[in-house]
Every structure is written in structure tokens, then in C-alpha cells.
Amino acid sequence: MTGLSKVGEDAELLIKSIKDYAIYMLDREGVVKSWNPGAERLKGYKADEIIGQHFSRFYTDEDRDRTLPDRALHLALKEGQYEAEGWRVRKDGSRFWANAAIEPIFEENGEHIGFAKSTRDLSERRAAELALRESEERFRLLVQGVTDYAIYMLDPTGKVSSWNAGAERFKGYKAEEIIGRHFSRFYTAKDLEAGIPEQALEKARTDGRFEAEGWRKRKDGSRFWASVVIDPIRGDDGELKGFTKITRDLTERKLAQEELDASREQFFQSQKMEAIGQLTGGVAHDFNNILAAILSSIRLARRRIEKGENADDFLSNAAHAAERGATLTQRMLAFARKQELKLESVDLKASVNGMTELLQRTIGPNISIHRNFPKHLSLVTADAAQIELAVMNLVVNARDAMPNGGNIVITATEVAPEGDGETLVELLVRDTGEGMDADTQARAMDPFFTTKEVGKGTGLGLSMVRGMVEQCGGRFLLDSVPGEGTTARILLKIAEQKHSEGPEKPPATERSNTSLRILAVDDDGIILLNTATILEEMGYQVFEASSGAAALEILENEEIDLMITDYAMPSMTGAELAERARDRDPDLKIIIASGFAELPEGRAQKLPRLSKPYTEDELATAISSLCS
């Protein structure tokens, strides 16, 4: 006998021995297939009387008219379980109150073969609950004039000296259980540790009244939200005789307020999501301008070339427009926290100084940019390109806030914010513009929020800055006063290495290993052609594949040193291709090129990445670092 069959027999014996529960099986249609003694005792049917019959006969006529049995099976299969209480019918026609649970049964291969059903008779408990409910209702009617409040007295030390019906209802203690006990037992452990009961009495004694709301404990340990008032009782001579204490249970109001707050928060969130609709106008406007610039520049360049004239200006315009498109994509990815950052040591001073001329051209002549950096400034941990993009966004926002001109000051210093244990570098971009009121400032970093005209911006600028800064482990803050301007503050962590004179220059890209045989894989024909052409110009021998299947065929027939594959391809992704390629050749070098920031789990996650769009230098550097 196998262990599995032994377990099965034990389980069957166990079920047959249970008499307090009806446990039986149904087929997929609800027909009874097995019957235990508990089922016979509860329902009144012997096994040979009920097996092969539909389980709906246990339901009342009213429930069958409402198709409750079929709905129960449907919900059990859909949700994985169905449980409910209700009236059921025995063989003799009598009714009992039952708790019924239904769970679907599946074969190892996942095929649905039926249901397991258990039923328990809760008639006695229901009768007790009904009796208790009737008793409580009679009691409520009798004392409804005094049971909305717990009103009792304390002696000068805080011990209970009287107890009313409302107190008993709120607290759970009868008078003989609580009189003579200290009232602090009604407080939570946290309040006891903080000395709240003693403070309450002292305030009532000195100020003439103590009034507050907070959590209190009942006898059974459950909590309720209470409104508490304590007044001192003094004799004619002013001597303290004790205290009167009035407690009201406000739990329902508290929960209702919390539900209201939660609903309000959901409403605010829905407003934010509704703002996504603004993306259509803003992004479409920006991308249409970019595409128009690219297309018109290429057409003009083609005409110049056909005439034998110089077309460099128009080709440069097309390249600049494409870079603007990449920047817009990066804004959206950074906002979504999906932009892959290349964290490194960044010299903020050198970065800002290097882009000042570009910034000045961008904002025009009626606005002046002033820089104020200390002689020595620690390097920060950030993505250099994203930092420059963030500064560009902040400067453009500052420009838009100063339609009549003004000044922009960019400065940085090392600070130790209150409450932080580490020193940070704070980069400030301050303008002398219109500033923002409190409502605008509160929404300024919300996704898609913009004060510009419809179609004139995506509203992603500040969201992008915040997303990038938080990904770097920093913080982004805004300070603004209407009529006085706005200060944007970027707080970044200091990198391990310290400031060095002048920006670090990357080592020259090596392209000496031109004997490499490289397989380029991309389902986009234009990108594949461009990548292959760039690689051939670098001197490499290039093979091209437009799908994963085609790439595997080339790998089968050719000696390939390096494969550069796109990630998002139909039928077989770049990650799947990399897995299968490494199964054939564990030593094959692979680079994944993708515009996505995250890849699924697997070996592909550990492969070198090339973020799209990439430049020739970035491509050459990736190859050199992997194959040198």
C-alpha cells in the first residue's frame, strides 16, 4: 500500500467518523456523489436514498425559486469558495438553520470534477441569538432614556464609587464588578504608559474640567471611541470630594468619519486619474510638433541632397527634434518611476555650468541666469542626464512664471536638514516670478497638472523631477509665495568619492576588436538597418535577424561572438531569445536593448542593458566593456 493511498483511506475514515457536520461530494452539476454519517444525521436521508439526487432538494422552495443552489455552485467555482448561512430542509420537511460551505475540487491536471460540501446545524445558536436579541431590545426600550451615556462617580483617588446602566452597557462591567476599582482600567496600555488617567484627573482638579476623545477599553478587551468629560465635585468648603465622569460611545461616528475621509481621499485620487485625460492634448501637441520638425527637415534635406547642396542644417534639426522626443518619453517614464537611472557620482557644479549657455538660449534674452556655487562642492549620487533634464524643466517653469522677464538664480550648498543624520547637497532654482498660491502649490507636482493653456504642456515637468530625485534617494520640495517667486529645492545624497577638479571625462571608447562577429536582432526594420550599418562602420562583421526564430537559426549555423537583441518582439521576446541562446552557447555574450526599465525574472535580468534610444558612442562603449 502506498503512502498516498494510506492517506486517502485515513481521510475517508475520518470523514465517515464525523457526525456533527454533513460532509459530502457533488459532481460538477450538483448531484450528490458521497454521503457521510453526519449528513445522514442532519438531513435524515440514508446514502442509498440521496446519492444520485441533486443537492437543491435541501433548499427551501423560496431559495430554489431564486436559483440559490446554482448560484452557490457558480460562486464557489468562480471565487474558490462559497460560504453562507440560511434555512435548509430535512427529509421530513422540517427546517434547520445551517452554515454551508462549498469548495470546488480539481484533478492534478487542473480539470474541475466537482465540489466538496460541508453543512453544520446552527439552529440552537440562532435561537440563542434571537432570544438574546429580543432580551436586548426589551432592555433597550426600558432604559433608552439613560443608556446613551455612562454616568458614574469617582472618589478623589480615581476609584469608581457609583455606576449606572449606561456605564454597564458601554464598559461591560456590572456595578458589583467595578465599584471600588480604579477607572484607569478603561484606558489602553499606551495611554496608561503615558499617564493619561492621572493627567485627566489633575487637569479636572486644576482647570475645573477635563474633556477629550480617545480609545477606551471594555471588560472584554474590545475598544470603543469615547467622548469623555470629567468634572470635579467639591464641598461647600472647596474640598475635593471626587469627580463626575460622563462617557459617550462615539465609535459609529468615528468609523463614519474615517469612511468619509477614505471616500474623500478616493475622490481626490479619482480626480488625479481623471487628469490623465489631459495627457492626450499635451503629449499629442508636443509629439506632433516633434514629428513635424523631423519630417519637414528630412524632406528639405532630401531635396538639398538631390540638388547637390549641403543638407547638414536640416539633418541636425531632425536629430535635435528626435532628441526632444526622447526627452519627452523620459519625462513620462520618470513620472511613472519606470525610467532606468544610471546612478553615478555627479558634479552638480560642472553639470550646471556646462549647460548654462543652452539654458540661456532656451529661456530668451529678457531673463538672466545667475549661478552661485561654493568653491568646493561634494559629488552627489544621481543620473547625470536626468539631473540636467530636471534643471532644464525647473528653468523652463521659472521662465513661464516670468512673462515680463526676471532673474533665475541657481545655487548649491551642503546642508544637514533637521532630523536627518547625514549631510546632503541642496540644489536650488529660484525665480522672481509670480509665485503660487497655496492651492496651486499643493497640486504643482501632481501628474498632468499644469497652469498652461490646453495643449501647451503635458504637466509632467515637476512630476518628472520628483520621480527622478526620489529614485536617486533624494527629496524634491517647492517653496512659493504669491508675488515673490518660487524656489525649487533638490536634496541629493553625497557620493562616496569627493569633489575633484573639473568634470570627469569618460575613457575613450575602444573599437579595436573588429574581428567580432555580431548578430543584431530587432523586429523593427528601420532600427535593425541602422544598428547593422553603425556596427559595420565600426568594422564588425554583422548578421541581421528580424525575429527570435531567425536569430536562433543564424546562431545554429554561424559562429557568433556577440548578440545585441531588442527586448519587445512578438512571438519571442529578447529575454526568451537570450535564455534559449545561452542554453545553446553558455559563453555567448548578449546585450539587451530596450526602452523598458524593468525586465521579467530570469537570466536576462543579469545581462548588460542598452537603453533605447542610444547613441553610437553608447553602443560602442557597451560592446567594448563586454568584449574588450
Give an account of the 3D structure.
The structure is a single chain. The chain has 628 residues and is of the alpha/beta class. It folds into five domains: 3-126, Beta-Lactamase; 145-249, PAS domain (Beta-Lactamase); 279-335; 344-493, Histidine kinase-like ATPase, C-terminal domain (Heat Shock Protein 90, 2-Layer Sandwich); 517-627, 3-Layer(aba) Sandwich (Rossmann fold). The chain is built from 21 helices and 20 strands. Strands 10-12-13-15-14 form a five-stranded mixed beta sheet. A five-stranded parallel beta sheet has the order 17-16-18-19-20, with helices on both faces.
Report a brief summary of the structure.
With 628 residues, the protein is α/β, with parallel strands linked by helices. The protein is 42% helix and 23% strand.
Provide keyphrases for this structure.
628 residues, alpha/beta, Beta-Lactamase, 5 domains, 5-stranded mixed β-sheet, 21 helices, 23% strand, disordered N terminus
Q: Could you give the topology of this structure?
A:
Blueprint lengths: L2 H15 L3 E7 L9 H7 L3 H4 L10 H5 L2 H12 L2 E8 L5 E12 L5 E10 L1 H21 L6 E5 L10 H7 L3 H4 L10 H5 L2 H12 L2 E8 L5 E12 L5 E10 L1 H24 L3 H29 L5 H24 L8 E3 L1 H16 L3 E6 L7 E3 L1 H17 L5 E10 L8 E8 L6 H6 L17 H11 L3 E7 L3 E9 L23 E5 L3 H13 L3 E5 L2 H10 L4 E5 L7 H11 L4 E6 L14 E3 L4 H12 L1
Strand percentage? 15-25%
- Low-pLDDT stretches: 1-8, 139-145, 274-281, 334-339, 454-459, 498-512
CATH class of the largest domain: Alpha Beta
| CATH architecture assignment name of the largest domain | 2-Layer Sandwich
* CATH fold-level label of the largest domain: Heat Shock Protein 90
Query: What sort of overall outline do the alpha carbons produce when their principal axes are compared?
Result: flat
Determine the CATH superfamily of the largest domain: Histidine kinase-like ATPase, C-terminal domain
* Count of individual helical segments: 21
Determine Rg (CA atoms, Å): 38 Å
First-to-last CA distance: 63 Å
Spatial arrangement of strands, main beta sheet: 10-12-13-15-14
Structural class: alpha/beta
Arithmetic mean of pLDDT? 80
Helix percent reads: 40-55%
Counted beta strands: 20
Number of domains: 5
Q: Major sheet, described briefly?
A: 5 strands, mixed
